Amino acid sequence: MLDFRPVLQIVGWLLVGLAAAMLIPAAVDLAAGSPEWAVFALSAGLTLFVGLALEAGMRSGWRRLSVRQTYLATALCWVVPCAFAALPFAFGKPQLAVTDALFEAICGLTTTNASVLAGLDHLPPGLLLWRGLLQWLGGAGTLAMAVAVLPALRVGGMQMFRIEMLMGGDKAAPRATRLATTLGSIYAGLTLAVGLLLWLAGMPGFDALVHAMATVSTGGFSTWDSSIGHFDNVRIDLVVTLGMVASGMPFLVFAQAAQGNVRALWRDAQLRWYFAILAAATVAMTLWLIFGLHYEFRTALRHGAFTVASAMTGTGFSTIDYSYWNGLPTALLLFTALLGGCAGSTTGGIKIFRLQLLLAGAMVQMRRLLRPHAVVIARFNRRQIPKEALEAVMGFVFVYALAFAALAMGLGLLGLDFVTSVSGAVGALTNFGPGLGPVIGPAGSFAVLSDPAKWLLGAGMLFGRLEMFPLLVLFIPGFWKQ
Amino acid sequence: MKDPSSLSLCRDDSWGGVADDVGANWADRDRPNSCVGFPLDSPREPSHDSPAKWGVSALLDVRPVLFINGFVLLILAVAMGVPAVVDAATDGADWPVFTAAAAAAAFLGGALMFGAKPTARFRLDIRQSLLVTVTSWLLVALAAAPPFAFSTLGLSATDSVFEAMSGLTTTGATVIVGLDHAPSGILLWRALLNWLGGAGFIVMAAAILPVLRIGGMQIFRMEAGDKADRVRPRVSQLAVAVTAVYAGLTALSAVAFWLAGMDDFDAVCHAMAALSTGGFSTSDASLAHWGSAVQWVAVASMVVAAAPLPLLVAPWRRGHPPLSEDSQLQAYLTLLVSAAAVLGVWRWATSDWELADSLRAAAFTVTSTATTTGFVAADIGPWGGFAHVVLFILAFTGGCSGSAAGGVKIFRWQVLTQLAEVHIKRLLHPHGVFVIDFNRRILPEPVVDAVLAFVVLYMVTFAVHALALTAAGCDLVTALSGSAAALGNVGRGLGGIIGSTGSWKPLSDAAKWIATFEMLVGRLELFTVFVLFTPSYWRE
């Protein structure tokens, strides 16, 4: 029988943390003289109560979590906080319905920019900060999961990024606490740097903070309805673009670079592809903007680079409205969003290393066609790809494709058209957010969707954020047996 | 019967790559049975040539390649005679064009055959086999194009090559508008191209791809029955038998079409287009031009066409599970029936159509897409997003291997599904041992690897070409569905341009060339073409 107590205890700790985070917007609202602070205080109280109850009630002595407990904890640690994070949206000024409030919270925590809120410009600052904070916390959770949990669980080929392998087999693996400190400081430092630069570039302090959190977590929630386009400032666009690109890089590389191992930046195969694809897509997008929409070169480059970076890292910021674009740029957005950034970052999508692994495997097959008896080894980052990793990646991509198909079909079944269904499914699974077309494009809103569509998309975001399997195994009968 | 030596040879279809039938490498060179024989002969007959003659040499010996290409061109020239005769008999104006094109193809073919005539019997090594496969499809498509350009239709060079490639790869994407008034010679030629292409692919899938081990096709070498513990039937016999089944089914389908109310010419043309999963029609409206009886015949023909034909060959079924137990066939029929039912109900519920009409149209459209045929019985434009998404996904499933259908093919999806299951099981039981099986046989790792690589390459090819199509000026829906339709040899996309009521005519020339290349790549199962672009193919 699966012992739930340690799992629920962890969830309790997390809720206590969430309650503490709720106090920040409460304080901000109080300072700004907005009556909304009471909402946050109430939500915090409720969350704290449940959290403490779980923590105290489920104490069972500290033991290592079993594999199944780890899966359950991973899944619950995402799902349960979503419910509590939704409280301020339901109780506060927007007065969202249950579905909408949950949807907004899921979007926030999974760092997807698919908001049902309209009229951001008139919302109290506490709520805007809460949205940014949710994304920032979600980004931190993503990072922790991508570095510590998924590689250990060997989900979808993530075993390629086990710490032992990354740091080289000879060194002893760094202790978990040290790793957490390193990552946490990189994450916080990057956020501070982006916030500071945004402020220097001319953004008001509050907006700079929220946007920095939404950038580094690749979340994409803005404080304005027209997103970054509201500021129409070249320097801000540049800072956000660079921030997004940096957030799509594996965060441990920053640690290595900070230790003076700058060459690690260049030696990482995943990073090289990341930059190459970003550059190629930016060039294509820029050319299209110049020749298709007759932009000036500099304007085209500015918006092209921004849009590509936003799609590839799954952030979802926008400077221009591409709802009515068609052809090349829309296909570029769709495919770059699907591909996603590097593993070990806060981005969503399939991740570049998986494409590399699969292509390496395909190339080996090609060579084997010519020389059936030759021993050809697929390599990634100068290391042999274990057979199991390759199959795990393929299993992941296949499940991803199935999830996409199911989601797109479900959205179609609910009456959405082809482009909206397909792009909505991609946007949700990759945690990018906006789709294509007038309904859920950057100028549209998810508010007009039906409730079942929102539930579907919300589920898609969670599945995408959790890299499918930690959530999927819970639905396998074999998980509960035994 | 238990001759140890013959048994050991039978055993080498342990598709694990321990021993293989095409061997160009050093280890294999004194094993004459390890080659694709031509003319198709017993693989176990010892060769009289010295190893050096059949080329493990440093240079690629292209003479056998040219010789076979010449032979294929001669067949094409003979085939061109058929529309020439029909056109002359129906007082068409195009018979001189066909005659001239046939003469040109025959001349070129004869020249190649005599010019590159091998001095002794020869065998092809792997690299030659790959080269023959690609060049012969390419050459035939080019040689089949002139009738389109010089006939009364007067297509441009791009359009002609597109139409010929689309026909030969059994894609069925057409650039011709006004088929209802087109001369019968041209109509017959299109259907004939479909049919020949289908036959070519079936032979290739039965004889060449398993030996080359393209995309996991080596599992179908075992279909030739090592379980029966007897001498393996020769590849050539299998190919001949499957072609005979194919021809017989075509005749049957033509009769059925005729009984359902088509006139005899249309019946023959549609039977050829249906059994090859090609999808060229003799009317702009495709099958919507005819009544429901004809459409049901078309559905049945398409379903049979994309079923694994080798299973229908009696001698090879001995020692095999009966047809009903073939897991690929089961999955294929389940997919068709469930998708058709869901889509039929969806159409019925969201429109004012009768249930019978909805189900027929849905069954037709689902079958046409999944079998990669591309016939049309109803305009699916107004069917809504759900139908479009389902059809878009079905374009990737494809038919069964061993048929003329394109796409990824059902058995590969079965392997992938199991791969995903194994991954999930392994997550929960990290030290468990899990195997993947197909038709109750455990699949060896090389097969799984090959399937995996195929699907990866398929998806990447799809994405790259979709991007290229948008760069060539297509809108998003046209590019996505067009890329899937060309790569899977389906022929019909979504949207207003290449959708059920449209044609590929309005696309730019660049887009047509991209689609032409993609059709060829899809038909030849990707690896055959892509391997020619790797440096290691030309090195050595």
Summarize the structure in short.
The complex is a heterodimer of chains A (482) and B (540). Chain A is mainly α and 482 residues long. Helix content of chain A is 66%, strand content 1%.
In terms of per-residue confidence, which ranges of chain B show pLDDT below 50 for 5 or more consecutive residues? 1-57, 223-232
Helix percent of chain A reads 55-70%
- Read across the widest sheet of chain B, the strand sequence of neighbours is 1-2
Mean pLDDT score of chain A, rounded? 89
End-to-end CA span of chain A = 7 Å
Class of secondary structure makeup of chain B: mainly alpha
SS summary, helix count of chain A: 22
Count of extended strands of chain A: 2
Q: Tell me the major beta sheet of chain B.
A: 2 strands, antiparallel
Q: What Rg of chain B is obtained from the alpha carbons, in whole angstroms?
A: 23 Å
What's the order of the H and E elements of chain A?
HHHHHHHHHHHHHHHHEEHHHHHH
- For the record, give the distance between the C-alpha atoms at the N and C termini of chain B, rounded to a whole number: 42 Å
Task: List low-confidence stretches of chain A.
Answer: 168-173
| Oligomer status | heterodimer
The mean pLDDT of chain B is 83
Please tell me about this protein's structure.
The complex is a heterodimer of chains A (482) and B (540). Chain A is mostly helical. Chain A is 66% helix and 1% strand. In chain A, strands 1-2 form a two-stranded antiparallel sheet. The N and C termini of chain A lie close together (7 Å). The model of chain A is unreliable at 168-173 (pLDDT under 50). With 540 residues, chain B is an all-alpha fold. Among the domains of chain B are: 323-397, no CATH class; 417-538, no CATH class. Chain B has 20 helices and 4 strands. In chain B, strand 3 and strand 4 form a beta hairpin. The longest helix of chain B is centred in the middle third of the chain and has 29 residues, at 184-212. The model of chain B is unreliable at 1-57 and 223-232 (pLDDT under 50). Classes of the chains: A mainly alpha (482), B mainly alpha (540). The interface between A and B is large, with 67 and 68 residues.
